């Protein structure tokens, strides 16, 4: 059986349901700035508590994974392509803001999805 768009979507949806450990170095919110033709990634710091939950280091409160959260990002990264963002974040930023390989792989996939949405005009929603 060959891969189809539908099969790829089913595989992707199933894999999106797996458990992942949170990165103690923080997380990124990715969005597009279509007016400037940029992929944007806001980096936020966090602390991982004994339960494995992300906690705001300033307030000590758990950061919800869904819904609106009012926090100030520590750094804003922008790039015209996924590769440009990856080079900036993983190669040029020291110390590296990503401590887990699965987090780095996830960001690479998301930046590529964002790049494709920027080029094609499709909507981009971070997974």
Task: Kindly estimate the percentage of residues that lie in beta strands according to DSSP.
Answer: 15-25%
Low-confidence stretches: none
Reading the helices and strands in chain order gives HEEEEEHH
Name the shape in a single word.
globular
Structural class: alpha+beta
Q: Major β-sheet, in short?
A: 3 strands, antiparallel
Please state how the strands of the largest beta sheet are arranged side by side: 1-2-5
Total E-strand runs: 5
In DSSP terms (H or I, runs of 4 or more residues), the helix count works out at: 3
Q: Average pLDDT across residues?
A: 92
- Give the N-terminus to C-terminus distance in angstroms: 27 Å
Name its key features.
alpha+beta, 34% helix, two-stranded antiparallel sheet, 3-stranded antiparallel β-sheet, 127 residues, 3 helices
Can you walk me through this structure?
The structure is a single chain. The protein is an alpha+beta fold. The chain has one domain. Helix content is 34%, strand content 18%. It contains 3 helices and 5 strands. The protein has helices at residues 5-16, 82-92, 101-120; strands at residues 27-33, 38-44, 47-48, 54-55, 75-79. The strands form 2 sheets. Strands 1-2-5 form a 3-stranded antiparallel β-sheet, with helices on one face. Helix 2 packs antiparallel against helix 3. The chain is globular, with a radius of gyration of 16 Å. The chain starts with a helix and ends in a 7-residue tail after the last helix. The model has no long low-confidence stretch (mean pLDDT 92).
């Amino acid at each position: 059986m060959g891969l189809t768009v539908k099969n790829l979507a089913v595989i992707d949806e199933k894999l999106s349901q797996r458990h992942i450990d949170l990165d103690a170095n923080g997380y990124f919110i990715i969005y597009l700035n279509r007016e400037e033709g940029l992929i944007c990634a806001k980096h936020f710091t966090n602390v991982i508590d004994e339960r494995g939950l992300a906690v705001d280091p300033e307030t000590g409160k758990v950061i919800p994974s869904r819904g609106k959260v009012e926090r100030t990002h520590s750094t804003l990264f922008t790039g015209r392509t996924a590769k440009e963002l990856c080079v900036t974040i993983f190669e040029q930023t020291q110390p590296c803001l990503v401590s887990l390989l699965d987090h780095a792989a996830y960001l690479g996939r998301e930046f590529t999805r964002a790049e494709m949405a920027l080029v094609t005009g499709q909507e981009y929603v971070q997974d």
